[in-house]
Amino acid sequence: MEAADAHRAEVDHDHRDGSYAAGAFSAPGENGDRTPVLGFDGGLGIAAPCVEALSKSGRAVAHSADGGKPIHLFHWFEGAGLRTTFEGPSARYGNTPDELVPLLREVGFPSGGW
């Protein structure tokens, strides 16, 4: 939380936009601890340069929804780069946009248009 505030101050972020991080905690994961962050802003959650820095020696994944609107975004950063991002899985972008296609099919996303 302190790092998010420091980053916002460093980039002269306008705090009047209503976005904020509501909390963070550590949780055990398969290859080490994870840190879920709950934020409210209707977008990525934190600025892309910050997520790129967080993923420099690991992985940062974000899912966001736009307050009841039919917008759901997914972002996967790893090694300081955007691996894949999409709103709907048929329109993917990033350095490795197709890497998650087998997993998306496995978990039940419709395969039309891939």
Report mean pLDDT, rounded to a whole number.
75
Give the ordered list of helices and strands. Answer: HEEHEEEEH
Helicity, as a percent range: 10-25%
Whole-angstrom Rg: 15 Å
Shape call: globular
Strand fraction band? 25-35%
How many H/I helical runs? 3
Assign the structural class, choosing from mainly alpha, mainly beta, alpha/beta, alpha+beta, or little secondary structure.
alpha+beta
Runs in which pLDDT lies below 50 for 5 or more consecutive residues are none
Report strand order across the widest sheet. Answer: 3-4-5-6
**How many strand units?**
6
Q: How many strands, which pairing sense, and closed or not: the largest β-sheet?
A: 4 strands, antiparallel
- Compute the separation of the termini in Å: 38 Å
Could you give a quick summary of the protein structure above?
This protein has 114 residues and is an alpha+beta fold. The protein has three helices and six strands, in the order αββαββββα.
